[in-house]
Design brief:
Alpha-D-Glucose-1,6-Bisphosphate, Chain A, domain 3, TATA-Binding Protein, 7-stranded mixed beta sheet, single chain, 5-stranded mixed beta sheet, 19 strands, alpha/beta
């Protein structure tokens, strides 16, 4: 059996057919979910009115061929636990969040490994509000998976049933179009879409075409093995090349499951999630629509984002890496805008989870409403140089407790002042200390990072 720790930063992930994603382990995981839906349904809610108490789950998957095997194993475990399954076939991750709320389910499951290579796959869960499940629920699932007596003895009186929903994509497309069509006319605009041979292949072009755009799709022929291959959010150069050739207004490179997007502006420059948050944050503030006057992101966002927002008196709140932590902080602070540098953007007034298509639409809406090109909008932020060094270590004491390291760190922070940033942390899985320095000058930050790395190596290397 796999080790006790099932969940990583974003759900369960492994090479398909092995470890956590072996058929036997998937069935156990599904039965654990079914058991908790029956015995502890409150874990699947953010509030008491979030979802129905009916034991049913909606499932979607990306375009990986391994999704069929994983879906079959999930069905077996869920049906054996008395849970009905609403199967919605291939759809982007955010559509599962939409369907959970549409069908009033207490839980949704996405079969996807997002941006990872094709041999990987994963299982992501949403609660009845459409948010990623809590750390508490993840731990309970892990506990039940490893309790053989519960898994083997749990047997409901009635087995679950399967309901196929081939029209689920249309429900999502119609919902988005009806929501935004009165506010966004894309006639006359040329837009390039890189579908990453993934789950947005049907939905993204359909929505943009409904809104009047002249749409050019690339990497939109999924074959079960080519998801993310030299395409999409990890490889936006194809989008840039196509955009420049067609003289298009904007390009959007999605990842395989459609919860992330990287922009390409009209001059062919790539714009990541930090640019998106800067553009959206400043625009929403100008329109008096930025709830809590803040943007929430992770420690990895560039200091350029922080300085761009500061120009408009907008606060940037940072969290640990992972969209779930960003979402939790946004809900705590009553914020509506957040995300990650990777292009995973949260617009909680539009969707309770990251949705690359909604992100693209909001950027296009800002372009139309301001009359500015994407390159002009992107000029609101200057991305600062960054240097990252990994240092092998023999132990992991508190880095602040190491006198030599602290002396060097204090000097670097003093030299950078408000114009730079230092992050010093250990790897969670390897014997490494990670040194990251940001600042306005590449040569300077490289020297600073190296000085810190040298001090760590001398002390605990």
């Amino acid at each position: 059996m796999a080790d006790d720790k099932l969940f990583g930063t974003d759900g369960i992930r492994d090479i398909a057919g092995r470890g956590h994603l072996s058929p036997e382990q998937i069935v156990r995981t599904a039965k654990a979910i079914g058991y908790l839906l029956d015995k502890e349904p409150e874990l699947f809610r953010n509030n008491q009115d979030a979802a129905s108490d009916k034991l049913r789950i909606v499932t979607t998957r990306d375009t990986r061929a391994s999704g069929y095997m994983i879906e079959g194993a999930l069905r077996a475990g869920l049906l054996a636990s008395g849970v009905d399954v609403i199967s919605a076939d291939v759809l982007p991750t955010p559509v599962c969040s939409f369907l959970v709320r549409k069908f009033n389910c207490p839980c949704g499951i996405v079969i996807s490994a997002s941006h990872n290579p094709n041999e990987y796959n994963g299982i992501k869960l949403f609660n009845g509000n459409g948010h990623k499940i809590s750390t508490r629920l993840e731990k309970r699932i892990e506990e039940i998976v490893n309790k053989t007596d519960i898994i083997d003895s749990f047997a409901p009186n009635v087995l679950g049933a399967v309901e196929e929903h081939p029209d689920a994509a249309e429900l999502y497309i119609d919902d988005i179009v009806s929501t935004i069509i009165n506010d966004l006319d894309l006639r006359g605009m040329k837009i390039v879409i890189d579908c990453a041979n993934g789950a947005v292949t049907e939905t993204a072009p359909a929505v943009l075409n409904h809104l009047g755009a002249e749409t050019f799709c690339i990497n939109a022929e999924p074959d079960g093995t080519n998801i993310n291959v030299d395409s999409g959010a990890l490889h936006p150069k194809q989008t840039a090349q196509t955009l420049k050739k067609l003289k298009a207004d904007a390009g959007f490179s999605f990842d395989g499951d459609g919860d992330r997007v990287i922009l390409v502006d009209d001059k062919g420059f790539e714009r990541d999630g930090d640019y998106i948050m800067a553009i959206c944050g400043r625009y929403l503030k100008e329109k008096s629509r930025l709830s809590a006057n803040m943007v929430v992101s992770t420690v990895m966002s560039n200091i350029g984002l922080e300085l761009s927002l500061k120009e408009k008196d907008i606060k940037l709140v940072r969290t640990k890496v992972g969209d779930r932590f960003v979402t939790e902080e946004m809900l705590k602070q009553d914020a509506i805008l957040g995300g990650e540098q990777s292009g995973h953007i949260l617009l909680l007034d539009k969707s309770p989870t990251g949705d690359g298509l909604w992100t693209a639409l909001i950027i296009l809406q800002i372009m139309k409403n301001t009359g500015k090109s994407l390159s002009k909008l992107s000029s609101c932020m200057k991305k600062y140089p960054q240097k990252l060094i990994n240092v092998n270590v023999n132990s992991k004491p508190n880095l602040d407790s190491l006198p030599e390291v602290k002396i060097v760190m204090d000097k670097v922070r003093k030299d950078l002042g408000d114009g730079g940033r230092v992050i010093l942390r250990y790897s969670g899985t390897e014997p490494l200390a990670r040194v990251m320095v940001e600042g306005p000058d590449q040569d300077s930050i490289e020297n600073m990072a190296q000085n810190i790395a040298n001090a760590i190596e001398r002390t605990i290397g």
